[in-house]
Predict the 3D structure of the following.
Amino acid sequence: MPIDCLLLTTLVWLQIKHFVADYVLQPAWMIGGKGDFRKPGGYVHAGIHAAATLPILWLSMPYLTWSVAVATGEFLVHFLIDHLKAVHGRRHPCAVNARSFWILHGGDQLAHHLTYSMILTVVARQSYLNV
């Protein structure tokens, strides 16, 4: 598959995965558990993201070691982004219709999607190096 098609397909699947994991598969206990290292919510949520990324990586970059390393990295980064957002949100609470809420939410989503840019970089390099 040409590299541009591979990267676009990978990005589309990562975006779909992100929507499902962040909005469909996230109940209140998961959301409430973010920002507290003692609660499982943030860990489970980041684990869902990492687990759902693995099959996408295996289809676009079928190297087990790299796939597991990238998914592990996504777990850590996703957990930290959400943790920091939750801590900030608790320290500076604001209504859902406030501009500051949407800036925080948008910044959170931007950080996650920049993570996908890094994942695509790894996929591109692995595809280029292992042709």
